[in-house]
Amino acid sequence: MDVVLLTTDPVRLSWARAVLAAEGIDSLVFDEQMSLAEGSIGAFPRRLMVDDALAPRARRLLDEAAQGLGETAPISAPPRRPAPQATGGLAGLVARMLGPRR
Description:
Layout: E1 2-7, H1 10-22, E2 28-30, H2 34-38, E3 46-50, H3 55-68, H4 89-98
Antiparallel strand pairs: 1-3, 2-3
Domain DUF2007: 4-65
InterPro entries: DUF2007 (IPR018551), N-reg_PII-like_a/b (IPR011322)
Region (Disordered): 70-89
């Protein structure tokens, strides 16, 4: 599953789920119950998750729907960067510590 929206706004979350459902894309909300831990102050964003294969389409749909409402910037969460290839030994440790080569 991949994050397509990260928000503390329950109205925006509900709207996004409705946009995706209208296009036949199932979604799940992660971290929805964090309000119990945070005291309902909205400090922790909720994550709207969809199937990895549908994530690019879902992001496009959300951004297009937001533009229709006058939003000027994309509202969807950016796609995840692929994880670097795992290697073993000291070289692998150094590579993980320094990040990807450029």
